[in-house]
Amino acid sequence: MRSRWVSLGLSAALLAAGPAFGHAKLLGTVPAADAQFTGPPPSLILTFNENVRLGVLKVTTAGHEVPVTIDRNAAPASTVTIQLPRLAAGKYDVQWSALTASDGHAVKGAYSFVIR
Amino acid sequence: MTAIGLGDAALVAAKAVTYAATLSASGAVGFLTYCHDLLEASHAREIRRLIRTLLIVSALASCAEILATAASMSGDMAGLFDLGLTRMILQAGEGRVTLLRLIGLGLMLPAPAVRRPPPWALIGAVVAATSFAWVGHVHALAEPWLATGVLVLHLLGAAFWLGALMPLLMVSRGADVSRVAATASRFGASALVVVGVLFAAGACLLCLLLHDVTELWTSGYGRLVLSKIVLVACLLALAALNHLRLTPGLIEGDGRALRALQKSIRFEIALAGAILIVTAAMTTLAGPAAFD
Predict the structure, then answer these.
(1) For residue A107, what is the nearest residue in chain B, using CA coordinates?
(2) What is d(CA A26, CA B266) in angstroms, rounded to the nearest whole number?
């Protein structure tokens, strides 16, 4: 009888161990997706609907990757800012992926902008 | 849906194998529990060996899923070797869920060594099978606890059904047709209720995740859901054939019914595999429009 209660308790504890909520969605970026403007932006800003940890950010232009540094140990945040080196005119493709802070679900996306 | 890369394909494959091995192991432990008195010793040994193999495959595939997630996030296979990204994933929800699943698999470890699985092996089966419910699309809904509860029922039903297919195929190769009939009959009696709950839970999840029935053909996620519905309908048709015609034929000692049952179960296993691949794609490559 006691082992049955232990089993039930263990079962409840294990089932309760994992609940997590959330599914991050990118709300907007600076520069905006498909924007065209003059003058290089100093940074990229990604805004999500909930806290995330940015895992990957790749900025490419004409087949070359622009060196950017992201901090994978940064605290989760709904707005992530990444400093950029001085960018020349051209079309830039941004690929990003992040983990939702609450449930660790991976989300990713891509967008582009043009510096005239 | 965004363009699918090699990392995404690897993640879908790893997830599908994790689903198949985990749900089948969990269901097979349950099968041993409720059918152990009907099984020939040789078949029981075969099923225990199957469980041992599935436990190992599930553990390996769960770990592979973490690496494949890194590859998917990275956008190329170099992500497989990105230790920093892997560490991030492990520290996040997928890591906790994987740990929960591994605990469940560990609790099932005694099952292959004894005639009847001990109670904690059944707990392990439940924990492992339901581990998939603790991360994913349902948690973005307005009523996440309702959706999670429904998903738990859906997963337990899937484990019960999928986990019985290989054991039933093994049992159907036995010489004692009456024993095969008794086992199929005992499974079928429970399956009526379980499949009903599985189907109802699936329909409930659809209502929660989709805004409109037109999404079934207008969105990428909806089209995957529609594919799954079609495959499940085929699986249900086979299950109905087994229960209404083949099992009664077996009870009457009809040898043709036995051969037909074996063929039907093989088709069910193939369909189940396709369903799990589609499910892995649904949970990896797309999201419901409800979140837009």
Answers:
(1) B73
(2) 44
Give the pLDDT confidence score for residue B142 in this predicted structure: 67
CB B72 within 8 A of CB A108: yes
B261: how many CB neighbours lie within 10 A of its CB?
24
Residue B152's φ and ψ, nearest 5 degrees, are: -60, -45
Burial of A90 (0-12, 13-18, 19+ CB in 10 A): exposed
Say which amino acid occupies B102: L
- Residues with Cβ within 8 Å of residue A67, at least 6 apart in sequence: A85
The answer to whether B77 and B71 have CB atoms below 8 angstroms apart is yes
Taking 90 as the threshold, does the pLDDT of residue A37 lie above it? no
- CA distances (Å), origin B91, targets A53, B96, B99, B165: 11, 7, 11, 35
Peptide bond into B118 cis (omega under 30): no
* Chain B residue nearest residue A95, CA to CA: B75
pLDDT: is B77 or B69 the higher one? Answer: B69
Average pLDDT on B136-164 reads 85
Give me the pLDDT at residue A17, please: 36
Calculate helix-pair angle for B119-130, B6-35, nearest 10 degrees.
150
Type of residue numbered B128: A
Determine, for residues B139 and A55 on separate chains, whether the beta-carbon distance falls below 8 Å: no
Chain B closest CA to A78's CA: distance in Å?
A: 15
The full set of domain ranges for chain B reads 6-291
Of the pLDDT bands very low, low, confident and very high (cuts 50, 70, 90), residue B2 is low
Region for residue B136 given its phi and psi (left: phi exceeds 0; alpha: psi -120 to 50; beta: otherwise)? left
Q: Which residues of B touch A23 (CB under 8 A)?
A: 136-137, 139-140, 287, 291
- Kindly report the pTM of this predicted structure: 0.87
Q: What DSSP designation does A67 have?
A: P
Phi, psi angle pair for B3, to nearest 5°: -60, 145
Note whether A81 contacts B: Cβ–Cβ < 8 A. no
Nearest CA in chain A to B86: A55
Token output for B220: 């990428």
Nearest CB neighbour to B126, from listed A11, A56, A99: A11
Q: How far apart are the first and last CA of chain B?
A: 12
Axis-axis angle for helices B83-91, B93-108 (nearest 10) = 70
Q: B103 to chain A: which residues are within 8 Å by CB?
A: 14
Cα of B50 to nearest chain A Cα, Å? 24
Task: Judge whether residue A105 has pLDDT over 70.
Answer: yes
